[in-house]
Amino acid sequence: MDLTVVSYAVYLPVSIGLTVWVARTLSRNGRIFLHDVFSGDEKLADAVNHLLVVGFYLVNLGFVALWMKTEQAVAHTRGVFDALSTKVGTVLLVLGLLHLINVYVLNKLRRRGLMDSEQRPPVPPQGWAAPAAPRA
């Protein structure tokens, strides 16, 4: 059997498995964070969570598929491990980078929401002023 095919046969399940595991972990644990970002609006938080997971799958599985091809044929067993370490390592770095970008953007949204909810007028209201008499 061609060792290049063996490296593909190992790379795809490992990369897809890692992508699914990371997506499920982020979805489960990120749900609480999204509820806070969207001020307790559960429907909106769950919808955004689902959209983020779908986008995460599309980007990462697309990357896994594009990154599968090797430039040179794998000639020996050591080459299988070299190819796999490079490819799986790159997939893990991309997964981590996308996770950090998502957390950064959501944290910005959360901070903006907190700032909007904590704004107070510079001077508390001190009563009502009578309307001015109409000018003739």
Structure description:
This protein is mainly alpha-helical and about 140 residues long. Helices cover about 75% and strands about 0% of the residues. It contains 3 helices and no strands.
Q: Could you list some keywords that capture this structure?
A:
136 residues; 0% strand; mainly alpha
Condensed summary:
Helix content is 75%, strand content 0%.
List the helices and strands and how they pair.
Elements: H1 3-37, H2 42-67, H3 77-117
Figure out the total of helices.
Answer: 3
**Which class best fits the helix and strand makeup?**
mainly alpha
Strand content: under 5%
Order of helices and strands: HHH
Largest sheet: none
Overall shape: it is: rod-shaped
Helical content band: over 70%
Cα-atom Rg, whole angstroms? 26 Å
Distance between the termini: 100 Å
| Integer average pLDDT | 84
Indicate the low-confidence ranges by residue numbers: none
Q: Count the E strands.
A: 0
